Amino acid sequence: MNAVKKLRLPHYLLIAAGLLVLLSLVRVVDGANDVTSSGTVEAMLRLAVPIFLAGLGGLWAERAGVINIGLEGMMILGTWTGAWAGYQWGPWIGVLAGIAGGALGGLLHAVATVSFGVDHIVSGVAINILGLGLTQFLAGLVFNVGHAKELGGGPRQSPPVDPITKISLPVLSGGGGTPDWLGSLEKHHWFLVSDLAGVLRGLTHQMSLLTLVALLLVPVSYFVLWRTPFGLRVRSCGEDPYAAESLGVRVYRMKYAAVLISGGLAGLAGAFLVTVAAPIYQDGQTAGRGFIGLAAMIFGNWRPGGLAAGSLLFGYTDAMNVRDGGQAVHALLLFVAVLLVAVAAWQAWRRSFLAAGLAAVAAVGLLVWFLDSDVVPGELVSFSPHLTTLLVLALASQRLRMPAADGLRYRRGEAR
Amino acid sequence: MRRGLKVSLVALTGTALTLTAAGCGGKKAATSDQKTVKVGLAFDVGGRGDQSYNDSAARGLERVKKELKVTTEEISAKQDEPDADKESRLRLLAGKGYQMVIGIGFAYTAAVLKVAKDYPNTKFLVVDADQCKVSGANVLGACFSEEQGSYLVGAAAALKSKTGTIGFIGGVNVPLIHKFEAGYDAGAKKVKPGIKVLPGKYLTQPPNFDGFKNPALGSEAAQGQLDQGADVIYHAAGGAGLGVIKTVGAAGKWAIGVDSDQYAQPALAAVKNQILTSMVKRVDLSVYDFVKSVGDGTFKAGTKQYNLANDGVGFAVSGGHMDDIKAQLDDLKAQIVAGKIVVPTE
Fold first, then answer.
1. Tens digits of per-residue pLDDT, A154-208?
2. B20 located within any domain
């Protein structure tokens, strides 16, 4: 294999632009306007944020060398505490309570794994069970009685929480009664122009303030972890805690801080679910997003930007699934077929003929399917997010490197 | 150190298991002596508090408790549980000496039929019996003509739509929910042949029943249909409908509720003025009828049909948004009852 060239920002922008042109082409060919509509992009953001926040929680913990498989449990704790505080004192207090609830789960994980040296997976699984059981128990105790029940609570759900304010950019996306330029541009369904308008409008129209906070966490996390002394210490604990110790870093303290932040972020993901995605806490609401967040983190190579890209991909396929479904996914068949043709050409150029052949066969198969049908049946549409996850992880797992001491037991003062 | 490790592990697992067990328990009945009549009711996914289907059943149970003076116990179903859990839940109720056991939702059909054989002295009711078929001398299946009620709200949707586009959101892609869509579609086209009914959106595919309880899914699907120009959206998605109604209401369009009169549901109070009507499905009536018939000895095994003729289904008029078209709908209703209009179910 030849030396892997490092991709930089211009490359990523070029790739994104190329994909948008291709999507636009596909949309025009199939007439599936939902592929790049602002509504789809808005939904993508809403669906991606909980996955992203959970993944960011995983990133913080694993950068400090603690595997956090208990994200799901911490997220569940966040949904419950978020809803409990949210329905009484408003959504923002709910968000803070959600962070606190998740951080509590993080603290438990830190005590078990850092202080007592418990296996990270065992502790994480225990927290998942604990989070689910505890919230079910508390929901029956708190939401099914008195005032909460009158407001619409029950043993499996909380009373409704007020939504967090949504904002739109003025002039471009119609915020505050100003004209909606991008919206009118999008309605013409012109090639590329309308697609670009749709995507931009989706990113600037009716965005919840909490979504904005989540988006800001990408640069903030990057800055703190890679540009501050604190971040350097945290990461050194994940790469080589003994070396860090010899340089005077208080490894236990760093790990505690990182796992607490990790729990808090997972709790924030839970709070997002009850204040933005759905207006209530519900038993089983997280639906495995904590684990998908971990997958997105791995896809993103333990970096915030890559994690965000992975979450958006899951969010996009999920948006296709829950919105229009059939027709839009049908257009994506063509999209994937074209991509596969490109992969086949690339592999053939690299003289890896088996891979090229497989990709070409898959491309032809998808093309035949595309030409032969008008919509994709609902059963397959609901499967598409999972299929994408599988494909992308399989293709992207070539260049990944996790923190060197991730998941290893560390004892202060011991030799290696 | 090793001791500390062990202690923490034991403590963690111990608490986890205790709390999980505690989370599974249902609401316990009040103290009861041998003579009182006891009714056990098992909810479908979503459970009490879904503001829709299960809450309709809960209302029936409350009424039974108040008017017929019986002791009741209710248990909610868990997310993604296997059929064996449903069966053991019913067995638990029957085994504890409950004279009447009620399963809410078609998913209970097989479990009820199986358990009923082992408890011949207990009477069973399954609401929305699968394919409307039950067997056994102690089993009653309640079936509803949802397509008839949906026909009327479909007509209402078409009459109230300004954009000429209306939408339907179903919870899970199962035959039962297809009846809602078929009736809605037919009713809308009857009063306005040119109306555009968007293809029905089903939130999840079986065996994933999340579509009956997850409001986030309902919310996104409703946004999708609003973006396609729909200004009246009818949902048959149980608890997930909460998201549909909130999203449609926030956009200032009309939502149509299902099963309960959703205008009166506490969790929807903030958007109730955007709830045009609800397709009321009297699950509460079927629960009440069943308990009453067992109580006065008129219980008959088999199936019982609830339709427009016996007001087992219908439409709600709370809020007064239907006042101007109510006469027209009552006329359609009379034609269905008289058999002049046959509403399709597929």
1. 888 899 999 899 888 887 777 777 788 888 888 888 888 888 888 888 888 888 9
2. no
Q: Which amino acid is at A395?
A: L
Residues paired with B40 in a beta bridge: B73, B101
Whether residue B73 lies inside any domain: the answer is: yes
Please name each of the domains of chain A with its CATH number: 7-36+326-375 (no CATH), 38-168+206-323 (1.10.3470)
Average pLDDT score over residue span A382-386: 75
Interface check A285 vs B, CB under 8 A: yes
The pLDDT score that the predictor gives to residue A396 is 67
Instruction: Report the distance separating Cα A336 and Cα A19, nearest Å.
Output: 11
Token couple for A395: 């293709």
Q: Is residue B1 part of a domain?
A: no
Show the low-confidence residues of chain B (pLDDT under 50): 1, 17-34
Q: How far apart are CA B55 and CA A279, in angstroms?
A: 18
What's the gap in Å between the CA of A25 and the closest CA on chain B?
A: 21
Provide the pLDDT for residue A332. 83
Q: Which of A16, A59, A34 lies closest to A290, judged by CA?
A: A59
Question: CA-CA distances (angstroms) from residue A264 to A76, A116, A119, B229?
Answer: 12, 21, 21, 40
Q: How far is B42 from chain A (nearest CA, A)?
A: 13
Same domain, B223 and B104: no
Looking at the structure, tell me whether residues B276 and B327 fall in a common domain: yes
What's this model's pTM, rounded to 2 decimal places? 0.86
- Residue A276, min C-alpha distance to chain B (Å): 9
The type of residue at B295 is: G
B45/B99 same-domain check: yes
Q: How many domains does chain B have?
A: 2
Q: Are A39 and B13 an interchain contact pair (Cβ–Cβ within 8 Å)?
A: no
Same domain, residue pair B248 and B296: no
Q: Has residue B18 been placed in a domain?
A: no
pLDDT in tens, A1-44: 444 566 677 888 888 888 888 888 888 888 788 888 888 899 99
Candidates B190, B193, B213; CA nearest to B203 is B213
Give the CATH number for residue B115.
Answer: 3.40.50.2300
B41 contact residues in A (CB cutoff 8 A): none
The rounded percent of chain A whose pLDDT value lies above 70 is 96
Residues B120 and B88 in one domain: yes
The percentage of chain A sitting over the pLDDT mark of 90, rounded to a whole number, equals 46
Which chain A residues have a beta carbon less than 8 Å from that of B210?
A: 284, 287
Cα–Cα distance for residue pair B218/B51, rounded to 1 Å: 14
Determine how β-strand B139-144 pairs with β-strand B123-127. parallel
Q: Which amino acid is at B239?
A: G
From the CB of residue A110, how many other CB atoms can be counted at a distance below 10 Å? 26
For the segment A212-236, the average pLDDT, to the nearest whole number, is 95
This model of the complex carries an ipTM of: 0.85
Asked if residues B153 and B256 have their Cβ atoms less than 8 Å apart, the reply is yes
Asked whether residue B218 falls in the same domain as residue B274, the answer is yes
The pLDDT of residue B103 is 92
C-alpha angle A232/A233/A239, rounded to 5°? 85
Residue among B88, B87, B91, B79 nearest B108 (CA) = B87
Q: According to the model, what pLDDT value does residue B9 have?
A: 53
Q: Which domain holds residue B201?
A: 146-281+316-337
Partner B contacted by A283 (CB < 8 A) = yes
Placement of tokens 């037919």 in the chain? B186
Rounded to 10 deg, the angle between the B2-24 and A120-142 helix axes is 30
